[in-house]
Recover the amino acids of this structure.
């Protein structure tokens, strides 16, 4: 499989969509990772959902596994051991956390309690999985203390 072509097309698809930096559903992905010499410039960034971000790092890991073995470490750090079917659940967790953080800054909508209830369900699901809970606990601690 041509992972370079796959990665370029994947990034192009994300870049061509109308995504806003202030939308909490998206995170910034460095097209050429900084660990591989990429710069922190706008032309080296693309907005992705957490699930897309995870997929992008999986493709990069497959592409550069021999030339840049550290990318496997970064992928593991990024994914926190949540691979395969668990990665979409992590994406949902991030989405609801980002929404609630946004509401804390910009004011609560009428259906705020629905977001909180769904977020709690996501946390319960993640706590039931056999994964390293450190990242999850750190994110929740940072959220609570802000």
């Amino acid at each position: 499989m041509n992972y370079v072509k796959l990665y370029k097309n994947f990034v192009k698809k994300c870049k061509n969509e109308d995504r806003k930096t202030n939308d909490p559903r998206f995170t910034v992905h460095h097209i050429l990772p900084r660990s591989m010499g990429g710069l922190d410039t706008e032309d080296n960034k693309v907005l992705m959902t957490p699930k897309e971000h995870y997929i992008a790092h999986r493709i990069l890991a497959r592409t550069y596994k021999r030339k840049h073995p550290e990318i496997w470490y970064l992928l593991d750090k990024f994914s926190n051991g949540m691979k395969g079917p668990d990665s979409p659940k992590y994406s949902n967790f991030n989405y609801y956390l980002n929404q609630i953080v946004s509401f804390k800054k910009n004011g609560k909508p009428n259906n705020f309690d629905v977001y909180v209830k769904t977020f709690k369900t996501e946390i319960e699901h993640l706590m039931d999985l056999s994964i390293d809970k450190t990242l999850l606990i750190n994110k929740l601690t940072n959220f609570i203390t802000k």
Summary: The helical segments are 3-16, 50-63, 70-79, 86-106, 112-128, 134-145.
